[in-house]
Amino acid sequence: xxxxxxxxxxxxxxxxxxxxxxxxxxxxxxxxxxxxxxxxxxxxxxxxxxxxxxxxxxxxxxxxxxxxxxxxxxxxxxxxxxxxxxxxxxxxxxxxxxxxxxxxxxxxxxxxxxxxxxxxxxxxxxxxxxxxxxxxxxxxxxxxxxxxxxxxxxxxxxxxxxxxxxxxxxxxxxxxxxxxxxxxxxxxxxxxxxxxxxxxxxxxxxxxxxxxxxxxxxxxxxxxxxxxxxxxxxxxxxxxxxxxxxxxxxxxxxx
Length: 255
Description:
Blueprint: H1 7-19, H2 23-36, H3 41-53, H4 57-67, H5 75-87, H6 91-104, H7 109-121, H8 125-138, H9 143-155, H10 159-172, H11 177-189, H12 193-206, H13 211-223, H14 227-240, H15 245-253
Helix pairs in contact: 1-2, 1-3, 2-3, 3-4, 4-5, 5-6, 6-7, 7-8, 8-9, 9-10, 9-11, 10-11, 11-12, 12-13, 13-14, 14-15
């Protein structure tokens, strides 16, 4: 109020009004500011958030796109716009927005995570892998990044890398079933059947009702020459889940 002619301060004040629930006052002030300064970021944020409260996502996106500067993107505008594009399943636009932000703040972890999630959705493995590798360095306590790298390596049949990244992920989250499964599958592909057996066994200790894990473990047992044990494991599973397709198919293979 003491700086009525400063649109930046007035815009920030409108944002603070919105945050404390004075939405009517925030809207009025934001509109007044935008009449003379149509790209003032906090006034834009007020209008966008008001549209979101009215469940009008396209209108919110329209406001944010008006305010986002390509030469100097406002972090909160970019955060919200990229998140909305992602939630609207416009993943290519989300990728572009996160890349724009990272041009100015290359080590900003939330934007790197958003970029990784968006690239995962568009299945752009070539661009995803270096982003995940960078996240491993600067966001070292995040097991999901290492697990994603392990999964990508497994999909690309880079089994040594899959083993390495899975082990790194398990250093952070030893109870993650999917990581144990990735490590087991990669180890099996490398013919390290003892490790595969161990990892499937650990995964089943964590999630004992996972029928798909039982079938995969039984297959490893068969490959290790323990066919009788594999049959017994499958028969026990079928007592619990009588029509389990994969278990029936593998049991038929082992007859």
